[in-house]
Specification:
It is built from 8 helices and 3 strands; from the N terminus they run H-H-H-H-H-H-H-H-E-E-E. It is 62% helix and 6% strand. The chain has one domain (26-129). Helix 4 (23-47) runs antiparallel to helix 8 (101-119) and helix 7 (85-97) packs antiparallel against helix 8 (101-119). The protein is mainly alpha-helical and 141 residues long.
């Protein structure tokens, strides 16, 4: 009964309290990213969209890094919004259902970008700094 009254952090394993994914879960996330990248690229190709547009738009989500000039908290929020599947998938659904090919193409490029980042091990950011991600620390230490 006393365990139910403790803060959740106190009953989690130490690695879960760090805010960084580890173990088998950590190994699965790059595979998930690669799957998202592959699925988005296949759907993009099947729809017959322009590969030139794909190349031009692939790095657009990284423009969100400029928000770090407003500070690490604002930077993390904006970067994470640009690197979260939820918004990109919602845009894809709206594009496909609404018959808006430009919207659908942009969304698939966005999903591919996020998948590529995850496959390379780049995660969502914490407000403590650009290199602090849910997949661990990136960059120089």
């Amino acid at each position: 009964m006393t365990a139910l009254l403790q803060p959740i952090e106190s009953i989690l394993p130490a690695q879960a309290r760090t805010g960084v994914v580890s173990g088998g879960v950590r190994s699965a996330l790059p595979l998930e990213g690669a799957a998202a990248l592959l699925a988005a690229a296949v759907l993009y190709a099947e729809a017959g969209y322009s590969w030139r547009l794909f190349a031009l738009g692939f790095l657009v989500p990284d423009v969100a890094m400029l928000a770090y000039f407003a500070g690490p908290r604002v930077g993390a929020v904006v970067y994470n919004l640009a690197h979260t599947y939820a918004l990109a998938v919602a845009l894809a659904l709206a594009g496909f259902i609404g018959g808006e090919p430009a919207m659908a193409a942009a969304a698939l490029i966005w999903i591919a970008h996020i998948g590529f980042d995850r496959a390379l091990g780049f995660g969502l950011k914490y407000a403590s700094g650009f290199g602090d991600t849910h997949l661990g620390r990136t960059g120089h230490r």
